[in-house]
Write a structure and sequence with these properties.
Blueprint: E1 19-22, E2 28-34, E3 40-46, E4 51-58, E5 61-68, E6 71-79, E7 82-91, E8 94-102, E9 106-114
Antiparallel strand pairs: 1-2, 2-3, 3-4, 4-5, 6-7, 7-8, 8-9
Length: 115
């Protein structure tokens, strides 16, 4: 069994201007941020499964859909006026960092490297 996923405390996210969507399962949470260009980004995590997903939408169009089954840590913060989602992942011999910034527009950086 993998180590538990480290996630932000929901009360720490209250002042970020995002929507927090708890689910019927208390270990599954979604957060939604809006870019100034109208795009939305939804980050969902499952603490028990150690997984996360990111959906970037432009209206009805899905621009990006990512899944992480080996997530180890998630952060949500305000970074220079933009909302920044970070998902760290670790799996035998590989470390990854997915960074999604939501501000004027949406930017995504995804790195997966051998350790």
């Amino acid at each position: 069994m993998s180590a538990q996923l480290e996630v932000p405390r929901l009360e720490d996210l209250d002042d970020l201007g995002i929507v927090i969507e708890p689910s019927s399962q208390p270990w599954v949470v979604s957060v939604i941020a809006w870019a100034n260009d109208g795009c939305t980004v939804k980050l969902t995590w499952d603490e028990i499964a150690g997984s996360a997903s990111v959906r970037w939408r432009d209206g009805d169009d899905v621009r990006l859909s990512l899944e992480r089954e080996t997530a180890s840590k998630i952060s949500v913060r305000d970074e220079h006026g933009r909302i920044e989602f970070r998902v760290w992942s670790r799996c035998e011999g590989l470390d990854g960092l997915l960074t999604v910034q939501v501000g004027e527009h949406v930017t995504v950086h995804d790195t997966l490297l051998r350790t």
